[in-house]
Amino acid sequence: MLACLRYLATILIVVLPWMEIRADDADFKAGFAQKDVTPGVPTPMWGYGARRDRLSEGTLDPLMAKAIVIEAGGDRVALVGLDMGRAPTTAMMDEIRATIREKAKIEHVLIVGSHTHHGPVFELIDREGFGKGRFDPTVAYLKTLPGMLSSTIIEAASKLQPARIGVTTADVPYNRNRHTKRTPPARDSQLAVMRLDDLQGKPLAILVNFAAHPVMTDNKILKFSADYPGFMMNYVEKEMGAPCVFIQGAAGDMSANAINVSGPQGFGEQLGQECVKLAKATEATSPRRPSVQGKIDRFHFTTRLDLNNPAVMMAFSQAFFPELVRNFAEEYKDGMHPELNTVLINREIAIVGGSGEFFSNHAVRLRDRTYAKHSLFFGYCNGYNNYFPTIEAVSEGGYGADAPVSPAQVGAGEQMMNRALINLYTMLGKITE
């Protein structure tokens, strides 16, 4: 009898840990897919007002949509990097959400524009004076974009497989504050790499989160380009043998800081070297508590611009072009409605996405206050509502902080970050609302 008990104990010691690992592996999955979403027609280009309505003249390098879908504890989230100047419009997001909810059971989605200034405009619609008539090929392309993004996400979900996850971060010198004159200047120095592996330790996908404006391609070149993030992703993919997804951070006041290199390729590969170092140093493991939690908040803010003033509209029309400005004014006619997405993965990885160009200190302060194991900020996420400077940046003034490009009421960014913090602590059970 004693010998039998000893034998049973030996089996339990050997088998139970294996059973626990298998349970963890079954509860956490990841899948990846990508699609070339470069317009096949000339379009007005996004990002530089001086171009006005001049049409694109070809492609330097393709604009990609890259989707990672994570399933944990029965819930799913899609993390999408898009080589565009901004994220999809509200109407596009509504269409995408409905499609992926129905066809892939995905409730949580964060689509992030890299903020390249060599992509197409998104703000033209099928309405006279708002795009129709003058820019019909662009309008037709934009009608297909939500479907292309949805199909990419659905494909990623179809490829879900048991996976492991790890995140590594480092402070790097590759961005600088382009706005403030204060010393020391605010800066988000974090470079974050999320690595997703299969159960054999082979990378399935690498996600890179970093904050710096992708404006290194000559603005006189009217050709589509992913700018430095494209070169960074290409470098990482070559070195790691796995797809790489770039997710822009709080880059409202962040420029790229190339060190002893120049141009988008030189800087992209320099940043890519750091990403590879972090990716190789990252240990992907099965999460102890696999889960996905998410919350969407939509805000109403007054604007610092009177878009009913003909003089204001005239000034904007001259700075950009009439059809673009009419769409802008229509969206903000009753105030601004930015979107905030808060996602918590495995109760350890906090992700906050805001629909605009947030100044870097928003991300830094949020990270300091979350006390999460890892905190990532996604800018240009699920929409676009211009700049969100910090309150002290508004007091300093300058581009990105003044009303013409930062129309939201003063303190809007801080309100959104406070809500994200409350969301995260509520998800963790530390605050009961």
Computed Rg: 22 Å
Tell me the span between the first and last alpha carbons: 56 Å
What is the beta-strand fraction? 15-25%
* Oligomeric organization of the protein chains: single chain
Give the count of helical stretches: 10
The largest sheet has its strands arranged as 5-4-3-1-9
The mean pLDDT is 94
Break the fold down into its secondary structure elements and pairings.
Blueprint: H1 2-27, E1 28-36, E2 45-46, E3 64-72, E4 75-82, H2 90-104, E5 108-113, E6 119-120, E7 125-128, E8 131-132, H3 136-158, E9 161-162, E10 164-171, E11 175-177, E12 190-197, E13 203-210, H4 227-240, E14 244-248, E15 254-256, H5 263-281, E16 292-298, H6 310-319, H7 322-331, E17 339-345, E18 349-354, E19 357-358, H8 360-370, E20 374-378, E21 387-388, H9 391-396, H10 412-427
Parallel strand pairs: 4-5, 7-8, 13-14, 18-20, 19-21
Antiparallel strand pairs: 1-3, 1-9, 2-6, 3-4, 10-12, 11-15, 12-13, 16-17, 17-18
Helix pairs in contact: 2-3, 4-5, 6-7, 8-10
Written overview of the protein:
Residues 7-23 have low confidence and may be disordered. The protein is α/β, with parallel strands linked by helices. It has helices spanning 2-27, 90-104, 136-158, 227-240, 263-281, 310-319, 322-331, 360-370, 391-396, 412-427, and strands at 28-36, 45-46, 64-72, 75-82, 108-113, 119-120, 125-128, 131-132, 161-162, 164-171, 175-177, 190-197, 203-210, 244-248, 254-256, 292-298, 339-345, 349-354, 357-358, 374-378, 387-388. It has ten helices and 21 strands. It has one domain. Helix 2 (90-104) runs parallel beside helix 3, helix 6 crosses helix 7 and helix 8 (360-370) packs parallel to helix 10.
